[in-house]
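Before the break, one more example. Copy the sequence into your notebook; we will annotate it together after we see the structure.
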Amino acid sequence: MTKLFHRHGLNYHWQLFLPIAVALCIVFSFIIWYQYKREADYRSEVLTDQLELISNHILRAYHEDQTLRPFNQFISSYFKDTKYDGVRLSVYKEDGLLRYSYGIPLPFDIDKAEGIRTIHATNGDLPVVNDEDEEKPYIVAHTYSDDGMIKVIAAMPFNETVDDAVEIDSTVWLIIGLCILVTLALTYWVTHRLTRSVTLLKEFANRAATGASFEDVDKFPQNELGEISREIVSLYRERENAIRLIKKERLVTIHAIEEKGRVMRQMTNNINHEIKTPVGIIRGYLESILSDENMDEATRRRFLERMLSNVERLSTLLNDVSTMTRLENGSDKIAVTRIDMHDLVYQIDYDLPATNIAGSMKFSFDIPLECYVAGNQGLLHGMICGLIKNAAMYSQGKHIGLNLLSENDHFYMFAFWDDGVGVGEEHLTHLFERFYRVDTGRSRKMGGTGLGLPIVKSTITTLGGTISVHNRSAGGLEFIFSLPRWRDDQA
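Here is what the structure looks like once it is written out:
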């Protein structure tokens, strides 16, 4: 019943099937009634035609002045034990005088005679009779000669034998009933197939409204309505996927904003902490100098030198913070040009004695000529110098190197290494974090800000590359980083 009815009444299948079924039943009923009427009229006319045939034979014999005895014998023998058994014939002259009779004479005006019920089979309305009927009707046919002088009345009793002869076989009704049932079943199947898509779409709508999954797409019929239904389900799924993707991206964006806020707060706190230290030192020395007017020159000079060292440390910190802010908040404004890595590294190597950022360590490189990357001259120069400075300050090694490892159609892969002591494995994943120090006391003593390697990573990622770090088997650290190749269409 749930398939037949829903909360608004009949479902779509039955709304389509019932009117068609009713229309087919009406059409069948009309056709059956028409055929039945036609068949009944035909069988009735056969009886009347037979009676008229007998009457015409008598009239022909009358006109040819023949004796009717042989014909009487023929009727008696031919119609015996048939539905025409009991036929009565009467021949009257115009004045009502009986000229001939076969069987009991029939009244001249038989239609008005008392005791005889007449019927005319030409209209097809034959009565239903049985043996209990006291008054048996007669089928009557009137035939006149051409000159109108002779009237032949033929009549036969309408008994059960005649009734069975004109009655339509009951098997016909069984066949008709079976045909109707088959037609209705076929109609039900066709309408069910036609409305299958609507039923599945309704089920899909109900499941979509409740958030349930719908996996019956293959059950849609292979027709135009089925194709439309599958397209609707496909569009809905694409929309749901898009909504889920938007929600996911929104969550990622919110998480990124929250993470950025957390990092900024952490960075702000770290900056405040890093600034307070040199500022506090400078303030302490200044107060000492101002409070002691008799301080000797050597002590005063030592205090001033330490103050200058902390001012330089503070300046370096502010420069690094400025660089980090530029990389994170203004990456889309950084100009990208064609950079020859060989020339850039060569220039850095040439300037090392003057800058002394490598200290006592020896720097070497192996980069081929015309190694063009898409980058920024200032950022790449600062990134490589930052790696050299970091190695010189913390590696405790003797050699530093920068090599080209591999290349493909899109990227160059480089390796920057040193032969120092490396770091503990537990520190590797934190080396690119802001203000992270492997040895806090030693790093502060050597003037590190804790932003050198984070600036290196931000530079690489801003330019579209990647960077990773690991301990070398021979000792020291190795940074593997990629930079995008320069393409002529970027010019």
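The CA atoms of residues 357 and 389 lie 5 Å apart. The domain at 211-329 is CATH 1.10.287.130 (Helix Hairpins). Try to locate both features in your own notes.
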